Amino acid sequence: MTQTAANSGLRYLRTPDAAKLLGLSPRTLEKHRCYGTGPVYRRLGGRVVYALEDIEAWAALGARRSTSDPGVGTVHPARRRPAEG
User: Fold this and answer.
1) Regions of the chain short of the pLDDT cut 70
2) Out of 15, 69, 79, 83, which residue is the most buried by the measure of CB atoms under 10 Å away?
3) So where are the chain's domains?
4) Which residue ranges are recorded for the region named Disordered (predicted)?
């Protein structure tokens, strides 16, 4: 977590700040939002915001201890998922 988010007590982050926290570009985070592969977000008065705990939970899905560790989830790339069926 960045010093700014931790110290200021921010509960919600706009796309540029959320992307910076994750080490992604804002455009990549926007693509994740469009494709449904990113963290949970909220629309508040036409603005997109991310709750800090939702960002951390999404990032935790990619946590691994080694290359052979299957982990608890998957962080998908920012692209359309193939149709299931």
Assistant:
1) 1-10, 81-82, 84-85
2) 15
3) 3-55
4) 65-85
45 contact partners, CB below 8 Å, separation of at least 6? none
CA 67 to the chain's CA centroid: 22
Distance CA 55, CA 77 (A): 15
What tokens were used for 48? 């997109």
Write the single-letter amino acid at 30. E
Sheet holding 12-14: strands in order across?
12-14, 47-51, 42-44
DSSP-assigned letters across all residues of 49-62:
EEEHHHHHHHHHTT
Read off the pTM.
0.75
Judged on CB neighbours under 10 Å (0-12, 13-18, 19+), 83 is exposed
Query: Which parts of 1-85 are beta strand (E)?
Result: 12-14, 42-44, 47-51
